[in-house]
Design a protein that fits this description.
The protein has 2 domains: 91 residues, DNA polymerase, domain 1, CATH 1.10.150; 177 residues, Intergrase catalytic core (hpI Integrase, Chain A), CATH 1.10.443. The chain is built from 13 helices and 3 strands. It has a 3-stranded antiparallel sheet with strand order 1-2-3. A hairpin with an 8-residue loop joins strand 2 and strand 3.
């Protein structure tokens, strides 16, 4: 019977080739499956694992071992997904029933994101060092745009000037997550910050050129935005660590706190499922309780 390593490598090769998966995706599958194989090798005393002899109890034992090591449920869930994909591929190739078919994934942990108060966001945006240099104006435009529109940092870095409609105050996010374009409102302060940056750009701008650039005219990287935000948090004297994605959480939470409905927020964020947007309801319980206390006659 064929050893697991050979079949594992064949699966990864098929994933990369036939499914046209990104190379890092295939490598991640391989890494997780190799971890599963190492566990089985230890149980078997070092002998090569025969794939056809793996059963559901082996997989459950592996998952139990993962939980004992106090790995995050999301990590365990990802590794089980890789195991299920491997055996599903093998089932199609050989007809042998997958031992992982009936095994359920562990429940994902619900990690609530860090969110700044509205006044803290204002301090963060206004935490400009002295001097209206091009870099300062660009960084202010980045902060205003992220908070005003709720864009992902990758979406911000991918914006071209043609995507911004100043007349009606919208941003067109082209091919966002899930390969879906969407139209997002953007506020006047963000539009003004972008206009100031455009006037100060060291290189001539073009309608199809990038909005957020480095000082040589190349498109700015998401890593550079993250580093800029980290410096700005220190300048503002904030204690809550926040990432560019955290500003997206601030956008959604503050919109919800100020009366926006979940469906509209879902549309602006580009969430495929309302369930993803609903997590923000957990962040504004204090606000909802205060509204209830003020509004209900018998609160």
């Amino acid at each position: 019977m064929q050893g697991m390593l050979d079949e594992l490598e064949a699966f990864v090769s098929a994933l990369s080739r036939a499914l046209r998966a990104a190379s890092n995706t295939a490598l991640n599958y391989r890494r997780d499956l190799m971890d599963f194989r190492r566990f089985l090798l230890d149980r078997a005393g070092g002998d090569e694992v025969v794939t056809g002899e793996i059963n559901a109890d082996d997989i459950r034992a592996y998952l139990g071992d993962q939980m004992k090591r106090e790995l995050r449920p999301a990590t365990v869930q990802r590794r089980l997904f890789a195991i299920k994909a491997f055996f599903r591929w093998r089932e199609q190739a050989t007809g042998a029933q997958s031992p992982a078919r009936a095994i359920r994934s562990p429940r994902s942990e619900r990690r609530l994101p860090a969110v700044l108060q509205q006044d803290e966001v204002r301090r963060l945006i206004e935490a400009d060092p002295q001097g209206l240099t091009p870099a300062r104006l660009r960084d202010r435009a980045i902060m205003e745009t992220l908070y005003s529109s709720g864009l992902r940092v990758s979406e911000l870095c991918g914006l071209d000037w043609r995507d911004i409609d100043e007349d009606i105050g919208t941003v067109m996010v082209r091919q966002g997550k899930g390969n879906k374009d969407r139209l997002v409102p953007i506020g006047e302060p963000a539009l003004e910050a972008l206009a100031q940056w455009r006037r100060a750009m060291p290189m001539a701008w073009e309608p199809r050129g990038p909005v957020i650039t480095n000082l040589r005219g190349g498109r700015l990287t998401t890593r550079a935005v993250e580093a800029m935000l980290a410096r700005r948090i220190q300048t503002a004297g904030l204690r809550t660590p926040i990432t560019p994605h955290g500003l997206r959480h601030c956008f959604a939470t503050h919109m919800l706190n100020n009366g926006a409905d979940l469906r509209s927020i879902q549309e602006m964020l580009g969430h495929a499922s309302l369930a993803t947007t609903q997590r923000y309801t957990h962040l504004n319980v204090t606000h909802l309780k205060e509204v209830y206390r003020r509004a209900h006659p018998r609160a």
